[in-house]
Amino acid sequence: QVQVVESGGGLVQPAGSLRLSCAASGNIISVNTLAWYRRLPGKERDLVAAFTKTGGTYYADSVKGRFAISRDNAKNTIYLQMNSLKPEDTGVYYCNSPKRPFSWGQGTQVTVSS
User: Fold this and answer.
1) What are the Cα distances from residue 30, in Å, to 17, 78, 96?
2) What is the pLDDT of residue 30?
3) Which residue, among 50, 11, 19, 22, has the nearest Cα to 106 in the 3D structure?
4) Neighbour-count burial for 33-58, b at 16+ CB within 10 Å, e otherwise
5) Cβ atoms within 10 Å, residue 14
């Protein structure tokens, strides 16, 4: 079983930045299999950013050019650098595996507001 702990969220003003972390432990094959999701208020949880099989990255259209996913294999951790944040980015951010999903962590709350 895989366990994750998401952190780094908080309150930030529009146009600000945050860096989220997702530390994984347990039976994880590679952090390359992890991705970032978010649940916006009143909506379903959606995929935001992921690593592709070809070594690239995927981003939802709403975050392209503003968010960047990265990883530290040695630390079993992935990150989400979020720049130019907008109020519509407000929500709870989670990490999980699109191909081998496991129980969701607590997530980390991101609030973008002036």
Assistant:
1) 27, 10, 12
2) 86
3) 22
4) bbbbbbeeeeeebeebbbbeeeeeee
5) 13
The whole-number pLDDT of residue 1 equals 87
- What is the predicted pLDDT for the residue at 27? 83
Contact between residue 35 and residue 49 where contact means Cβ atoms under 8 Å apart:
yes
Residues 21-61: pLDDT tens digits? 999 999 877 889 999 999 999 999 999 999 998 989 999 99
- DSSP per position, the chain: -EEEEEE--EEE-TT--EEEEEEEEES-S-GGG-EEEEE-TTS-EEEEEEE-TTS-EEE-TTTTTTEEEEEEGGGTEEEEEE-S--GGG-EEEEEE-SSS-------EEEEE--
Tokens of 51: 């690593």
Q: Give residue 20's Cα distance to chain centre.
A: 7
Maximal CA-CA distance, the chain:
41
Query: Measured between alpha carbons, how far is 63 from 89 in angstroms, rounded to an integer?
Result: 9
